[in-house]
Design brief:
Elements: H1 2-13, H2 19-23, E1 30-32, E2 48-55, H3 63-68, E3 79-87, E4 94-98, E5 104-107, E6 110-111, E7 118-119, E8 122-125, H4 128-146, E9 152-156, H5 158-167, E10 171-175, E11 179-181, E12 186-188, E13 191-195, H6 197-205, H7 215-236, H8 243-253, E14 258-260, H9 265-274, E15 283-287, E16 295-297, E17 301-303, H10 308-319, E18 337-339, E19 347-352, H11 359-370, E20 373-374, E21 379-380, E22 390-393, H12 398-406, E23 412-415, E24 423-427, E25 437-439, E26 450-451, H13 452-455
Parallel strand pairs: 1-14, 2-9, 4-15, 18-25, 19-20, 19-21, 19-24, 22-23
Antiparallel strand pairs: 2-3, 3-4, 5-8, 6-7, 9-14, 10-13, 11-12, 15-26, 16-17, 22-24
Length: about 450
């Protein structure tokens, strides 16, 4: 995931900056040889495939930062996150596929890089490939699982991730509900936030969000949203058009990056040239489709299994340089605001607080059409002389109340203890419309492919 920050800056910005500027950055890249002695590799497809690996190395993090951002503990020297990024021919599209680190796999034969012991093929979780055999075994394992030939390998740690976000001036994300994780220290109220490097690291690492049982799948979804926001920030902030700013951002991104020897200045320039005009809407994000049930392996623990049919189809599309999102996906006429609670879960009683005939039915019909569970029996009480629309709610249902208020622009929330689960809407003379809202989907196995413009803050 942290590599995705490098990708969003390098891929989008190399073109037009100049060979001298990009060439001067090559010295900041650490080199590895992930393709050494590899045989029987998949056939090359169309476009370019980059394996992005984020490790849990924190050796260059200061003690103060470790305390502030909850980065204590010993690193496992394994992959914190793995993403397969496909860059389409001609810069038409970038497809980002998250590979769950707890995916069940069989590691190929290899020599353990720590003990020097020779291992036969054996079952493991995907993130164990890096711990046992480093970049080489990681690439071999991913290629054997996906059938996709990896062209380049990029690896980054916590430090370069934080520095890159700070160099961009922060990245804006939005959340319809509170995000709190005591493990990472993340605590974001509902709304829009511009995250610094350290805060961004908390956001992408969190997988124990209170009230959210999606764990790693939820974290992958947040990581992908952050990548989209990162691309939007890089394209909208003028960084890519300013050689000085660009060099500063890329220098930060490359501070702790390791890559294969074939990924250098020439590749950055050719990528940038090919992807001129690339925007956040040109990116798409997906997770490997998972089987309904995982597997428990002795000595390994619980692991998730890929759906063999759907995963095969996904990676065939990657090899064939085809989009993962449904073709001709029509954009909604009006983007629905994301709320914390699904409208169908919110029971609503509508009151017409004015003397305007039919206003109660109009509001009830509009809320019902948006998905709210209305009583279908609006009550008219003109004696209320309501000017503004009010959402009355029991404090125990505050999340539902905020979600309902989001659908009623200009409305006011009013807490009423003991009111119960049914929310009350008193429509006033200032009522204008019911705005479309929708709940954020919680991952359960895998989530749908989305394009970048669908997940960034509107």
């Amino acid at each position: 995931m942290r590599l995705a920050t490098t990708l969003s800056v390098l891929v989008l910005g190399a073109g037009g900056i100049g060979h001298a500027v990009v060439s001067s950055l090559d010295s900041g890249i650490g080199r590895v040889d992930p393709f050494k002695d590899m045989k029987n590799r998949p056939s090359a497809g169309h476009g370019m495939n980059v394996l992005l690996v984020g490790t849990d190395d924190r050796s260059t993090i200061s003690k103060a930062e470790k305390r502030k951002y909850r980065l204590g503990g010993a690193p496992c020297h394994c992959t914190d996150t793995i993403m397969l990024v496909h860059l389409g021919e001609g810069g038409r599209r970038a497809s980002v596929v998250s590979l769950p680190r707890d995916s069940y796999t069989r590691l190929p034969e290899h020599t353990d890089r720590t003990t020097g012991e020779r291992h036969a093929t054996h079952p493991a979780k995907l993130n164990a490939a890096y711990a046992e055999g480093g970049p080489n075994l990681t690439v071999r394992t991913v290629e054997s699982m996906t059938g996709v030939k990896i062209d380049h390998y990029l690896e980054v740690d916590f430090t370069s991730f934080m520095k890159t976000v700070d160099a961009l001036g922060g990245v804006r994300i939005c959340t319809p509900r509170r995000l709190r994780d005591s493990n990472t220290g993340l605590d974001l109220a509902p709304g829009t936030h511009t995250l610094s490097g350290g805060q961004a690291l908390q956001y992408v690492r969190s997988r124990h969000i209170e009230g959210d049982g999606s764990a790693d799948l939820g974290r992958m979804q947040r990581q992908q949203r952050f990548v989209a926001a990162m691309i939007a920030r890089a394209t909208d902030s003028g960084v890519l058009l300013n050689p000085v700013k660009f060099k500063g951002v890329v220098s930060a991104a490359l501070d702790s990056v390791r890559a294969d020897a074939g990924f250098g200045p020439e590749q950055l320039l050719s990528l940038g040239e090919a992807m001129r005009g690339f925007s956040v809407s040109s990116s798409e994000f997906a997770s490997v489709p998972l089987a309904a049930h995982g597997v428990t392996v002795k000595g390994v623990g619980s692991a998730v299994k890929w759906d063999p049919v759907k995963a095969k189809a996904m990676f065939r599309a990657v090899r064939d340089d085809k989009p993962l999102a449904p073709p001709h996906k029509a954009a909604p006429k009006r983007q629905a605001k994301v709320v914390d609670v699904a409208p169908r879960q919110i029971r609503v009683q509508v009151y017409n607080g004015t003397g305007t005939d039919g206003l109660g039915k109009k509001v009830d019909d509009a809320l019902k059409a948006t998905g709210f569970d209305t009583t279908r029996e609006p009550v008219t009480e003109p004696a209320l002389h309501a000017k503004e629309t009010v959402v009355a709610y029991d404090p125990r249902w505050d999340r539902s109340a905020r979600s309902l208020a989001a659908a009623l622009p200009g409305s006011r929330l009013k807490a009423v203890k003991g009111q119960g689960a049914t929310l009350k809407v008193v429509a006033g003379t200032g009522f204008t419309e019911v705005a479309p809202v929708r709940a954020e989907e919680a991952p359960s196995g895998a989530f749908s492919t989305v394009t970048g413009d669908e997940v960034v803050c509107s």
